[in-house]
Specification:
The protein has three domains: 5-263, 2-enoyl-CoA Hydratase, Chain A, domain 1, CATH 3.90.226.10; 298-473, Rossmann fold; 481-696, N-(1-d-carboxylethyl)-l-norvaline Dehydrogenase, domain 2. Helix content is 49%, strand content 12%. It is built from 28 helices and 19 strands. The strands form four sheets. The protein has an eight-stranded mixed β-sheet with strand order 12-11-10-13-14-15-16-17, with helices on both faces. A six-stranded mixed β-sheet has the order 1-2-3-4-6-9, with helices on both faces. A three-stranded mixed β-sheet has the order 5-7-8. A hairpin with an 8-residue loop joins β15 (428-433) and β16 (442-447). The protein binds 3-hydroxybutanoyl-coenzyme A and 1,4-dihydronicotinamide adenine dinucleotide. 3-hydroxybutanoyl-coenzyme A is lined by residues 22-23, 25, 61-66, 77, 98, 100-102, 105, 124-125, 128, 130, 132-134, 136, 278.
């Protein structure tokens, strides 16, 4: 066999073991090894059954994503799975960890499947802009039914072993050793005289439901909920082929659709996003021997919007956390907010009552700093005021044990100044959560001038423990995400002064793929936040950097967004759906007039350029200043914290895909037309001149 696939004969049973760390992906050597092993088992007359299992943490987690876009190397996965399914001896896949994508397809090629109780199975290809291309769309509906197959293939979400068994995807659950469980199951098959059973030949899943109606409904759902995405509609078309065509023809149709997806630019962007997320966890200058400190207990200071969300994140990860407030009343409000948040999840059915109580029991309310003497990590989330931060960090410095990590959730204050309030600036780091902190996956880990390697490594490890996507950023106003969004929001507001309405701007950016338009977003977070920042900026900004006035006018009229029932939009009580704000038109006219602007209709392409390229230009500055380690980190921030469409890869990848010379040309035109804010970033000018991309730039080049 090959190095990565081993065949052992255990009496009359052939045991095939895959060993291709870290996730047993189906690279060429594994495909080749599987083909050879199944052929050898077929040829060996002493073998009566075959067991397939994997070493390491997981069953096969899918095709080797690194091979996409490269010339195909034989044997292809469909060929391997045909050989597995066509084997004349019964085969058993023994699933542990995650059987994903091509991994589940290999398991479906086997005649029987058993899964360890904690295993998961899924077809996540859609998340990479693909569809299952090795029979998954044909075999899964035949076993699990069209409704379940459509759900799994279109959402890409994995399901647990018990659910897989309930849907006929696996035959039995087990606990304990893999080979032993597989061989035991195979022996029972032989004793019961049960032979091969091909998933592709089963029809049970296709019977008894109105499959055409299910397909129609899913198509409508995809059109409404996933606009702009290339692969989901093709996933539905592939399942439709399973319903309408015999297996061989269905497999052919699946392949055609798979190749269309493989060739689409969206696949390139989504695969890039997958690797970018993993790359973000790597810190360029961190010596390999740096070990994170253990964090088993935590504390949060401030039980407001963010503090409670952060405390919930710790409780969700099973970490006991103390929540400290200024007095008993404020503390009780915070604890009640925590309970209410969980209660809403219980009501929605996403959390059990028992799990809620267990998680709440991990949150202890305190008002005395002495209670924090033994915690491993503290996250401060008090008012955004340097004086208050000072008080808190001086107290923490006095009471916390040596080696405790002192983190701040500040969104705009200077972390180095905060660190200087302590005698241990090396232990101070920023943990910038996004609201709601218990839901949003993004965590900006802010590296202060003196933050130690060990503390940085620990901060990243905590992020992983909390199931966040953590990205290291440097200290500057707004770090990466908010510094860029400031440019974006300002340009969006200038568009209102030029002639657009919030509906037009939000609509154009949603069509581009943004999860939410900038004005709906600002109504949600509250217009007063931006106002405070603008007031600060007006004091220092040179005269040529003009600011828009629309949101100031809204604030002056008491329209602060959703919380006051009106902002850029109007809101009915208890309803978050934006309606037209009837007072806005007059206010926009006044703003345009004040600036001597003749209002004019704006087209969608201009709206997108004006806002998205503002992100790109600032991203280039951030990159050159070393505030982000690499352009893909900026993209990870935008995909996970700001609703940027994953199928466009993030703002920097989007710019790379347009071509930096094209981007520079557009920015130069905007500079000539709109003034100082649009001065092209020097790094953009340099890379465009050299015909390079953001993604191949390294600091110091
Ligand atoms: N191919 C190549 N490398 C992969 C990989 C894959 N399918 N899946 C994971 N890796 C790599 C990661 O890049 C990472 O590498 P690094 O250490 O160098 O950064 C390493 O494996 C570990 O990955 P994670 O950090 O993600 O480890 P976790 O333990 O957190 O998660 C996992 C494991 C759940 C398997 C997760 O990695 C995952 O979801 N992988 C992708 C699964 C997937 O999408 N499979 C479908 C592929 S498409 C397909 O199969 C097409 C077929 O239908 C023809
Ligand atoms: P908030 O006003 O909702 O909550 C602050 C809480 O801190 C209040 O409950 C207050 O009683 C408490 N507090 C004040 N002084 C304290 C002290 N000395 N000791 C203990 N508790 C004290 O504020 P919010 O929105 O939760 O923000 C907190 C921090 O998080 C700020 O630094 C903010 O910039 C940052 N942040 C806010 C985000 C948001 O969307 N609201 C997003 C990311 C960061």
């Amino acid at each position: 066999m090959t190095e990565v696939v081993r065949l052992e004969n255990r009496g009359e049973i052939a045991l095939i073991m895959v060993n291709n760390p870290p996730v047993n992906a189906l690279g060429q050597a594994v495909r080749q090894g599987l083909l050879q092993a199944f052929r050898a088992a077929e040829a060996n007359t002493a073998v009566r059954a075959v067991v397939l299992a994997c070493e390491g943490n997981t069953f096969i987690a899918g095709a080797d994503i690194k091979e996409f876009g490269k010339p195909p190397q034989a044997p292809g996965l469909p060929e391997v799975i045909d050989a597995i399914e066509g084997c004349s001896k019964p085969s058993v896949a023994v699933i542990h960890g995650t059987a994903l994508g091509g991994g589940l397809e290999v398991a479906l090629g086997c005649h029987y499947r058993i899964a360890r109780k904690d295993a998961k199975v899924g077809l996540p290809e859609v998340k990479l802009g693909l569809l299952p291309g090795a029979g998954g769309t044909q075999r899964l509906p035949r076993l699990a039914g069209v409704a379940k197959a459509l759900d799994m293939i279109v959402s890409g979400a994995p399901i647990g072993a018990a659910e897989a068994m309930a849907h006929n995807i696996v035959d039995e659950l087990f606990e304990g050793e893999l080979a032993e469980a597989g061989i035991g199951f195979a022996r029972r098959l032989l004793n019961a005289d049960r032979g091969p059973r091909c998933s592709g030949e089963q029809t049970l899943g296709l019977e008894g439901a109105d499959n055409e109606a299910l397909i129609r409904a899913k198509r409508a759902e995809v059109a409404a909920r996933m606009p702009g995405l290339f692969s989901p509609l093709r996933c539905v078309a592939a399942v439709e082929a399973a319903v309408k065509l015999p297996l061989a023809e269905g497999l052919k149709r699946e392949r055609e659709l798979f190749v269309e997806c493989l060739d689409s630019p969206q696949r390139g962007a989504l695969v890039r996003a997958f690797f970018a997320e993993r790359q973000a966890s790597k810190i360029n200058d961190l010596p390999a021997d740096v070990k994170p400190r253990p964090v088993t207990t935590a504390a949060v200071i401030g039980g407001g919007t963010m503090g409670v969300g952060i405390a919930l994140s710790f409780a969700n990860a099973g970490v006991p956390v103390k929540l400290l407030e200024i007095n008993e009343d404020a503390l009780q409000r915070g604890l009640q907010r925590a309970r209410d948040t969980y209660a809403a999840s219980v009501k929605r059915g996403s959390l059990t009552e028992e799990a809620m109580e267990k998680r709440l029991s991990l949150i202890t309310g305190v008002t005395d700093y002495a209670a924090l003497a033994d915690v491993d990590l503290v996250v401060e989330a008090v008012f955004e005021d340097m004086g208050v931060k000072r008080q808190v960090f001086e107290r923490l410095d006095a009471v916390c044990k040596p080696g405790a990590i002192l983190a701040s959730n500040t969104s705009s204050l200077d972390l180095n100044a905060i660190a200087a309030f302590t005698k241990r600036p090396q232990d101070v780091v920023g943990l910038h959560f996004f609201s709601p902190a218990n839901v949003m996956r993004l965590l900006e880990v802010v590296r202060g001038a003196q933050t130690s390697h060990e503390v940085l490594a620990t901060a990243m490890a905590i992020g992983k423990q909390l199931k966040k996507v953590s990205v290291v950023v440097g200290v500057c106003d707004g770090f990466v995400g908010n510094r860029m969004v400031f440019q974006y929001g300002r340009e969006a507001e200038f568009l209102l002064e030029e002639g657009a309405t919030p509906q037009q701007v939000d609509g154009a950016l949603r069509t581009f793929g943004m999860a939410m338009g900038p004005f709906a977003m600002r109504d949600l977070s509250g217009l007063d936040i931006g106002q405070a920042i603008r007031q600060r900026q007006r004091l220092t900004l040179p005269a040529e950097f003009e600011l828009p006035v629309v949101s100031d006018k809204l604030c002056a009229a008491g329209m602060l967004g959703q919380k006051t029932g009106a902002g850029f939009y109007r809101y009915e009580p208890g309803n978050r759906v934006p309606q037209e704000n009837p007072t806005l038109a007059a206010l926009l006219d006044a703003a345009s007039q004040e600036k001597g602007i003749q209002r004019r209709p704006l087209d969608e392409a201009y709206i997108v350029e004006r806002t998205i390229l503002a992100l790109v230009n600032e991203g280039a500055r951030i990159l050159e200043e070393g505030i982000a380690q690499r352009s893909s980190d900026i993209d990870v921030i935008y995909l996970n914290g700001y609703g940027f469409p994953a199928f466009r890869g993030g703002p920097m990848f989007y710019a790379d895909s347009l071509g930096l010379d094209v981007v520079l040309g557009k920015i130069e035109a905007l500079h000539a037309r709109c003034g100082a804010w649009w001065k092209p970033a020097p790094l953009l000018e340099r890379l465009a001149a050299e015909g390079r991309r953001f993604s191949d730039w390294q600091p110091g080049q």
